[in-house]
Amino acid sequence: YGRISRYGVVPVSWSLDHVGILVRTVEDAALMLQVISGEDINDPGSSNEPVPDFIKQMAGHSQPPRIGIVSEYYSDKSTPEVWAHTQEVTKRLAAAGAEIVELGLPGSFKSAHSAQRIVMNVECAAFHEQFHATQAEDYGPRVRSGMEMGMLVPATKYLQAQRLRRQFRQDMVQMVMQVDVVLTPTTPAPAPRDRNTTGDASFQVPWTTSGLPTVTLPSGLSEDGMPLAVQLGGLPFEEGKLLGAAKWCETALGVRLSPPNYS
Fold this sequence. Notes:
Blueprint: H1 26-36, H2 54-59, E1 66-69, H3 74-77, H4 80-95, E2 99-102, H5 109-135, H6 141-150, H7 155-176, E3 181-185, H8 205-210, E4 214-221, E5 227-233, H9 239-253
Helix pairs in contact: 1-9, 5-6, 5-7
């Protein structure tokens, strides 16, 4: 959070919103991040943290990484196919030389999803209230529902949610500091065929709530031929280290997926 300016992005939640990069390779992600990172006076949430040479940093972290695995929560919330695939990916990375470490989730994880939902809904309602009053039908059903729930949340609940979120961020940083990166499934289920939804984003919530950076790597196909992926999370403003680990994992897995009907 704060590395890339959000100027020009219509807000959903100004303390959670962030710009993602969609590219083919980890190296492309590093190149794109290099170009669009940096402080922007047009975005009060942008960070003044110096922007390093991400390609150089990535190259400096080319050794087999120490990877944290979290079975708690993710094994229960994933479909059997996704969790079995994640375990297989972990075995392949270990066989290639990565050190695998089992991690436990912090106690504050239990309240993180609820806190994130309150913060997102309230901030969405605050920004869109005037538009909602006259153009409610123009919003999609999920966004509109969240916005309307946010209008009903007292200020005290919002502030308590932000307090819980700050504690969760500190706890997540302490967890990630034990390893180079943390690996989880990207989503609980394979990519949906229904293009009216982007799927279940619950596995992104811990990272969005804490503001820590992530990289998603395509890792295979489901039985139905839909994409599967794993997610690597790192420490704030240590993207070079995260990208280096992601590049190593990308090479070790050797997965190259083409869009359907394309070679």
